[in-house]
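Exercise: predict the fold of this chain.
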Amino acid sequence: MASRRGKIGFVGLGVMGAPMARRLLERGHTLIVHDRDPDAVRRLTRRGAIAARSPREVADAARVVFASLPTPDSVRAVAIGADGIARGRTVKTFVDLGTTGSRVEDEVARRLAKAGIATVAAPISGGAAGAAKAALAVMA
């Protein structure tokens, strides 16, 4: 089922990201997904998500891109790396769901702003159990 709300991008389909992405699909959103683990991507494409080959490809397709990544270095690479979100043609908002830390978050926000992309630091709490139950707290 295609969404009238537009496409949403999601990068990082691990313990926390996969359940959040699944919930978006269940609510009828069109979801463009990427993860370095092809099996994680396949699990969501079987549910209707559209696979992207890179973070940039996600950002070429969606105005809003969520990232649920495990480390500050992975956030940096996905957001501003060679094939990252900053190079996307469509993205306007990048939402970092991780606990990235202010130093990297500021660096990413500055670099994305130069590309015309707003950044929202929105770490989540509730752990894997909260993600599975759709009971996470988001602090933006």
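Check your answer against the key: Helices lie at 17-26, 38-45, 55-61, 72-80, 102-114, 127-132.
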